[in-house]
Amino acid sequence: MVEQPAIRTPQPEITDPMSRFLLFAAALWFAVSQPCAQTTGVPLVNDLRILLPPTYIPAGSGTTSCGPGTNQGFIPGAPFVVAYDVNAVGSTGAILLLDFFNPCSSPGFPFFPAQLPTCAGPVAGGTNLWYALGFTPVPVPVPGITGTTGITRWNFNVPLGPGTVWAQCVILDACSSLSFKFSQALGFSW
Predict the structure, then answer these.
(1) What is the pLDDT of residue 26?
(2) pLDDT computed for residue 72 by the predictor
């Protein structure tokens, strides 16, 4: 009896660099993601807050991206001014990312699965390298100047609606293993 060699079907080769990157990113995401892993805002470490009319009382502090308390809901009365601030003692700068097209994305995308508790804070653990906004279109980056107390603040005029925006902050921090970390993501509609 003569054995026949196995017939192999040729597989298409992925040569496009962007396709390779997306395949790698998807594999990495599935390998390290956890269903509830998202960035938690920790006061003095990576805490983003939003100040909305009519009271301008800070909201969203200590929440976890895409979790309860991160969507501030519909805010009537536009046009008005909205303010964001991030509290990160030891940061060297901060960039607020504004996403007008994608809602908060749970479980998000991990840039690195672990972060030292000394940089992440006791509540955030290893989750402050999780990105919760969309990749396309790219969010609008707004750099900010960090004060001596570790607070960076942004004020924006909100035009007539309707509209929705989600914000997440990239905090530049030499303590972090990648020299940056994220705040939690916060959103509202008008």
Answers:
(1) 47
(2) 96
What is the predicted pLDDT for the residue at 39?
Answer: 87
Domain ranges of the chain: 37-189
| Residues of the chain with confidence (pLDDT) below 70 | 1-36, 113-126
Dist CA 109 CA 26 (whole Å):
9
Q: Which residues contact 165 (CB under 8 A, 6 or more apart)?
A: 98, 99, 100, 187, 188
